[in-house]
Amino acid sequence: MAAIYSLYIINKSGGLIFYKDYGSAGRMDTNDSLRVASLWHSMHAISQQLSPTTGCSGIELLEADTFDLHCFQSLTGTKFFVVCEPGTQHMESLLKVIYELYTDYVLKNPFYEMEMPIRCELFDINLSQAVQKDRVAMLGR
Amino acid sequence: MIGVGKIKQYSNVLDKPLSKGKQEVSLSAFAFLFSELVQYNQTQVDNIAELERRLEDAGYAVGARVLELLCHRDKGNRRETRLLGILSFVHSTVWKVLFGKVADSLEKGTEHEDEYMISEKELLVNRFISIPKDMGTFNCGAFVAGIVRGVLDSAGFPAVVTAHFVPVEGQQRPRTTILIKFAEEVLASFSLIMTLFL
Amino acid sequence: MVPKIDKLVNVLSTADKDVANFQVKLYDEMTTIEGLTEDGMYDATTMMATKLDLIREFFTMPNHHRKRDLIMAPVGPRSGDAIFANVERVNAELFTLTYGATVRQLLTDLEEVEEVNKQLDQMGYNIGIRLIDEFLAKSNVTRCVDFRETAEVIAKVGFKMFLGVTATVSNWDADGTCCSIILEDNPLVDFVELPDTCRGLYYCNILSGVIRGALEMVSMKTEVTWIRDVLRGDDAYELQVKLLKQVPEEYPYKDDE
């Protein structure tokens, strides 16, 4: 079973509001994760502009030698992306589930301030359940 | 008191087919409204105790109306007059109407004669809420405590009602206990009745 | 809870002996999950049949989690009815009375009816900028081609999936930037009568704020006003939604930044 390395959520202005590291491969310190987030935010935007297709919504999948990066951007501009082992399946469905968890446990939490870093215990709990490998496999049936 | 949100007369309620209590909205709609109610109240207070009190007040208004509504609809306008009767009415009837299920448990306090506890593994209002660390033991269940107080008070059983997180062994999340402490006069009249009966 | 645990014990004790039997039990449990298709049940059962820890968790998991984990997000937009049928719902009275308590609190805090109207609109806006994401996530709606489509989607999908009521769109102006959304049913106002002291109150003003906030998050600046209000003696609830400005979807970096 392929592994997920890390998960990022960036707000519409490019600020990293959530970062989670899974396992040892590709572990990064805070500075690096912030760098990846802002780099991805810009690259994503540039790709939108460069794309020959009109109405392109940006890069959805970046395949590298050592990792894949899957990205989902909501119409409201929040980006969710996972970095995972090359060839990991069902990441689009996982990102969709994470988006729904975000609407439940972040946006319905009165103590969460919009656009700010996410510190919600229930989001963490539900997220770790969703990321469990078997669950991901189920989603991709 | 300003009369917004007041319940219409019995005949009017019956006139409206919607008010059989079967209509539903999405849990999300309620969750967003409740979240905003909490956020608004946060802007009106300086400390957590005040926030708790204000949420309780909001709940009280709901509780008082729920009692009216249920008495009209389900009990032919007859009100519960016994202490245990009203407690079980809250734990089962009120809970079922408002939260879609009977509360997990209703217990008598072991240390104090005048205390009762209604517990719920996961209070509906807390479903999506994570309390920040700096807010300590604050529980948005204060709103539900207010509902309970509203029902009890309007039924003639004044009480102090509070909401508390209680850790449960083997569970990641604590449950919420609504602690009901009846006013002295309630217990006095209750024990008087008991004496008469025994 | 008890019967489920019984089942679980059964399942675990027969696990090694008979995988097929096992699947039948799982399948039975699956059939209780609203909205899961036949194929979905079959696949999930096969998938879980040999994974004990997953099954253990499945049997103790609340139903709404099962739904979330087992039902694949459908492709393409969904109807308001379909969404409403599949989301978790609560008694409208809890919602109505909580809203009533909110309005009451504002009247006590702010005293002036005009201020209450403003605050309700602001609270609606705050809700709207959060609620839009749930709307998008659950409805699979993609970017609307024009404002006409947007208004239809709000009325047919938005009102239905959150409040369980349908609304209609009418009174379009010539250039398609202003219309009315008319509510046939309004769960906010059950049991409500406005007393004389609250004459100027727009009791449902939160709704206009929600629409304004939600649309702003998808780059549409709008102005939303009440045209008709049953609580004020009219025969329907009518909201006018006027598109002021469509902020282009361009990337927000300007040359001078």
UniProtKB/TrEMBL annotation, chain A:
One GO cellular component assignment for this chain's record is: TRAPP complex
Q: What biological process terms from GO does the record include?
A: endoplasmic reticulum to Golgi vesicle-mediated transport
Task: Name its cellular compartments.
Answer: Endoplasmic reticulum; Golgi apparatus, cis-Golgi network; Golgi apparatus
Pfam families this protein is in? Sybindin
The record's keywords, sorted A to Z, are:
Endoplasmic reticulum, ER-Golgi transport, Golgi apparatus, Transport
Oligomer and partners: Part of the multisubunit transport protein particle (TRAPP) complex.
Q: Which family does it belong to?
A: Belongs to the TRAPP small subunits family. TRAPPC4 subfamily.
The protein, known as: Trafficking protein particle complex subunit
From which source organism is this entry? Citrus unshiu
Automatic annotation (TrEMBL), chain B:
The yes or no answer to whether the keyword Endoplasmic reticulum is present is yes
> What UniProt keywords apply to this chain's record, in alphabetical order?
Endoplasmic reticulum, ER-Golgi transport, Golgi apparatus, Transport
The protein's superkingdom reads Eukaryota
> What Gene3D superfamilies has UniProt attached to this entry?
Trafficking protein particle complex subunit 3
CDD domains named in the record:
TRAPPC5_Trs31
**This protein's name:** Trafficking protein particle complex subunit
What family is this? Belongs to the TRAPP small subunits family. BET3 subfamily.
Pfam families in the record: TRAPP
| Cited InterPro entries | NO_sig/Golgi_transp_ligand-bd, TRAPP-I_su5, TRAPP_component
The record's note on quaternary structure and interaction partners says:
Part of the multisubunit TRAPP (transport protein particle) complex.
Entry keyword Endoplasmic reticulum: yes
Q: Which BP terms from GO are recorded? A: endoplasmic reticulum to Golgi vesicle-mediated transport
Q: Which SUPFAM superfamilies match?
A: Ligand-binding domain in the NO signalling and Golgi transport
Q: Which GO terms describe its cellular component?
A: endoplasmic reticulum; TRAPPI protein complex; TRAPPII protein complex; TRAPPIII protein complex
Where is this protein found? Endoplasmic reticulum; Golgi apparatus, cis-Golgi network
From TrEMBL, chain C:
Single Gene Ontology BP term? Answer: Golgi vesicle transport
Which ranges does the record mark as transmembrane? Answer: none
The main place the protein resides is endoplasmic reticulum
Q: Which UniProt keywords apply?
A: Endoplasmic reticulum, ER-Golgi transport, Golgi apparatus, Transport
Annotated Gene Ontology cellular components are: endoplasmic reticulum; Golgi apparatus; TRAPP complex
Q: Which InterPro entries match?
A: Bet3, NO_sig/Golgi_transp_ligand-bd, TRAPP_component
Give the protein family.
Belongs to the TRAPP small subunits family. BET3 subfamily.
- One Pfam family of this chain: TRAPP
Indicate whether Endoplasmic reticulum appears among the record's keywords: yes
Location comes to: Endoplasmic reticulum; Golgi apparatus, cis-Golgi network
Q: What is the name of the protein in this document?
A: Trafficking protein particle complex subunit
- Its source organism is Citrus x changshan-huyou
